Amino acid sequence: MYRDNLNGKPSVTQESFPLGRMREVIPLLGFPERRDYWISQADFSRKNRRAVNLAAIGVLFVDLDYYAIPSLQLMDSDRITHLVLDRCNDLGIPVPSLIIDSGRGMQLKWFHEPLPRTALPRWHAAEDVLVRSFEDLGADRKVRDVSRVLRIVHSINQKNRKRIEIIHVEWGDKDEARKYAFNDLAKFILPFSREQVSEYRKHKVQLRLIDGGKPNVEGLLPFNPKKPAWDRLEDVRTLAKVRYGGEVPSDSRERDEFLFWAVNFAALNLWGRTSRFWHEAYQLAAELTPTLPKSEVSANLSTVWSKMQQMVRGESIEFNGRKYPPLYTPRNATLVERLGISEDEQRQLKMIIGKDLSRERDAARKREKRAAAGAVGREAYEANSLSRQKPWEALGMSRASWYQNGRP
Question: Considering the domain 2-189, what is its CATH architecture?
Fold first, then answer.
């Protein structure tokens, strides 16, 4: 994406290229003196930067506008870099793979393996914690979503005519900037491990953060609807593909239901950014209900939009002693009924399933867990049992005599 700054009338142009061509395309830009250039931090399946079209994300990032912090305004980029590295050391998190001088601020980037769209909630959680960790150094809280674009290295920041340059590299293998395993980054960044969250969900253990950000089994871990909501969004899209080939026909009685629930679950993952709501909503409408006029899309989603605004204002709904967002967080059974999902369709979904299939999958997971721990399956156990082998018969004695005489 670039912006021409000619005759005092800047105009923005966005172009999309296959990821494999980036090394070819960027050098051809030339970076004219009167243009700003940005690049997306993620790869998308369509020619736009909608989160619902995310193909993969391979970097965590923080955009530092330290020039906006009075106590930092007189410091140069070297001094700010030292503050960043010291902060990482204090928090016990890995240092950035790259630190980039963006002209008036700084970009911090932690490279990791590409994560698919299904991993977006966990990526968002790590991204949010990182941004908050550097907030007093000028971290921009608006810059924490997969749709974000950042200035390209070697381009010119037209606000002060400075060139964007790499100022620190954490070297890894093959003389390249270090790439971390995302799970390792998450282990150091996120306050709660996957195991702790799993225990909370299973036993309702209450967790809170104490000094230093360490978890303790007291207090309360609030209900976080983002991960199940994202999985349900994926299930709605999968169901549309399974049942209709992707596009819900205009004469289907479930058409409005599909769009309503897809947008509701997408909204739960927008991290309070109302500016992205209609972009994501119209993209989902174009995918699921392309025959629905835009005016009807807006009318059908007015309730979701209203509840999204309530969530941004910090409002919540309390039920059974727990707080929930104003947006809808229905039970799976409700969705199965509202969308008329058959058992065969449920088997192709991840979250929106009935109790019988849920118990079946839970039993399968437990069997796999026992097998991984070295436990012997029931059939193998019975096949090797003395009751099945009957060694006393081979010796011509009774079972009682075999035990009385001392089995070998």
Answer: 2-Layer Sandwich (3.30)
